[in-house]
Design the sequence.
């Protein structure tokens, strides 16, 4: 499998465990080590799209152990220029409910101890990338348009707080995130988004709202996830299909 990809890639995790599992893939070594999984080539109409399972096949890598640098560097080796990151989040913002989708516009990074930059002691260069606006406006617009095409409601905007995990948050931590301006909470967006920027890739995120954040519902978090994961995932798959349909 040596075919080169076109410029788009999807990186996905929870909810997508069996997605593309029977498609042949390619392991690609990088200066940062091996990516989470083989990179698979998907076909949407006339678009060839690279697909990477963020947590590995069989979901063995928790968010804080994912080699984000290798994942993005492997995609860059294939010529990927545009990344659609699909992830699950808890909902902080009142008025939004699990089962829905969102295309966040900002993020706050609370992670620590992750290899978060391609620039290290082995780098010949260093660039302090401008991260004022972490997401690509064109890709965000494309995802939102895809939602309209597919007839799937996608919330436009919001701030994604990225926590370290693997444990979920306390109710007080969620209150603090809300005071900080966060609308969603998840564990995988960083350093993925920043490394994509360092590699000069365009990047946007499609978030699956799968639970009320800690302390925000009478219902248990896992009960919430069980109820909403399937519909959020099937909505996300429809949005991705429409995204690539709209490019043709
Ligand atoms: N917190 C952190 N990460 C998550 C959550 C959450 O509530 N739901 C899905 N990913």
Sequence:
């Amino acid at each position: 499998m040596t075919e080169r990809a076109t410029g788009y890639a999807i990186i996905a995790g929870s909810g997508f465990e069996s997605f593309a599992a029977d498609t042949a893939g390619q392991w690609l070594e990088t200066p940062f080590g091996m990516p989470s999984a083989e990179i698979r080539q998907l076909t949407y109409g006339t678009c060839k799209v690279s697909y990477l399972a963020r947590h590995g096949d069989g979901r063995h890598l928790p968010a804080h152990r994912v080699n984000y640098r290798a994942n993005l560097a492997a995609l860059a080796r294939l010529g990927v220029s545009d990344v659609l990151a699909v992830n699950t989040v808890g909902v902080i913002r009142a008025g939004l409910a699990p089962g829905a989708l969102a295309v966040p516009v900002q993020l706050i990074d609370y992670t620590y101890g992750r290899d978060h930059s391609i620039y290290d002691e082995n780098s010949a260069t260093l660039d302090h990338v401008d991260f004022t606006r972490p997401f690509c406006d064109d890709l965000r617009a494309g995802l939102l348009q895809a939602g309209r095409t597919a007839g799937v409601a996608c919330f436009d905007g919001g701030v994604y707080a990225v926590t370290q995990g693997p444990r979920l948050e306390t109710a007080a931590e969620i209150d603090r995130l809300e005071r900080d301006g966060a609308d969603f909470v998840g564990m995988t967006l960083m350093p993925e988004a920043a490394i994509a920027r360092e590699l000069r890739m365009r990047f946007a995120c499609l978030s699956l709202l799968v639970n009320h954040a800690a302390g925000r519902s009478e219902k248990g978090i896992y009960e919430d996830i069980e109820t909403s994961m399937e519909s959020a995932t099937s909505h996300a798959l429809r949005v991705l299909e429409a995204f690539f349909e709209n490019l043709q």
